[in-house]
């Protein structure tokens, strides 16, 4: 079954005629901004929580042994903190390919944390919903952490994704109980005598 969402994302042309747009990152985009951006600001979106419910068959796992990566799940009243990037529309093409495994562009209202102007903007985020073929959904935290601990894909160990995200969120001063609970459950790497510190 194909998980490739590239073609559907290309048909989403909302910002094609703009000079720039805001992209909200809540997962790897927070700690891995390997694309050109004009500006970045800490930001949040309303009504969403970050969850490790999306399967990764192409980056942090394989089709036989998928990893788990972050997506957003609707929760009324919740706030999800992340990083917003102002980018040129052309930057979305390579990101569509990088995130082709079930993620679709979603229009969002984002709010900046710094109190500066403008206080918010319309923008995009990448969302993997439960109807995509790679979606894994909820599971006990111990089971999710155990899966992340062993999964490995072309982009590296799944545990690195989680550890990097937990560290980046701590550095931003963001409390995310789901992410921190998973990071705390990762077994220490063999030969590591020090308690694992996700900071
Ligand atoms: C993010 O960091 O926001 C993200 C990155 C890739 C796919 C989906 C979301």
TrEMBL record:
It comes from the Bacteria. Gene3D superfamilies: Gamma-glutamyl cyclotransferase-like. Its EC number is 4.3.2.7. Transmembrane segments: none annotated. InterPro entries: ChaC (IPR006840), GGCT-like (IPR013024), GGCT-like_sf (IPR036568). GO terms for molecular function: glutathione specific gamma-glutamylcyclotransferase activity; transferase activity. One of its GO terms (biological process) is glutathione catabolic process. One of its GO terms (cellular component) is cytoplasm. Keywords: Lyase, Transferase. This is glutathione-specific gamma-glutamylcyclotransferase. It comes from Halomonas urmiana. The lineage of its organism: Bacteria, Pseudomonadati, Pseudomonadota, Gammaproteobacteria, Oceanospirillales.
């Amino acid at each position: 079954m194909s998980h490739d969402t590239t073609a559907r994302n290309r048909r989403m042309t909302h910002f094609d005629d703009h000079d720039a747009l805001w992209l909200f990152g809540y997962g790897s985009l927070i700690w891995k901004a390997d694309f050109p951006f004009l500006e970045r600001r800490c930001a949040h979106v309303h009504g969403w929580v970050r969850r490790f419910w999306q399967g990764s068959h192409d980056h942090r796992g394989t089709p036989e042994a998928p990893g788990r990566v972050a997506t957003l799940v609707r929760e009324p009243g919740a706030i999800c903190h992340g990083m917003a990037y102002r980018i040129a529309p052309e930057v979305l093409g390579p990101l569509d390919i990088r995130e082709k495994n079930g993620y679709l562009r979603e229009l969002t209202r984002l709010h900046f944390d710094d109190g500066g102007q403008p206080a918010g903007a319309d923008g995009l985020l990448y969302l993997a919903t439960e109807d995509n073929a790679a979606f894994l959904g909820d599971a006990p935290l111990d089971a999710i952490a155990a899966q992340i601990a062993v999964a490995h894909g072309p982009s590296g160990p799944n545990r690195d994704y989680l550890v990097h995200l937990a560290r980046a969120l701590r550095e931003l001063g963001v409390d995310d109980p789901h992410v921190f609970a998973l990071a705390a459950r990762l077994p220490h790497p063999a030969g590591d005598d020090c308690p694992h510190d996700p900071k």
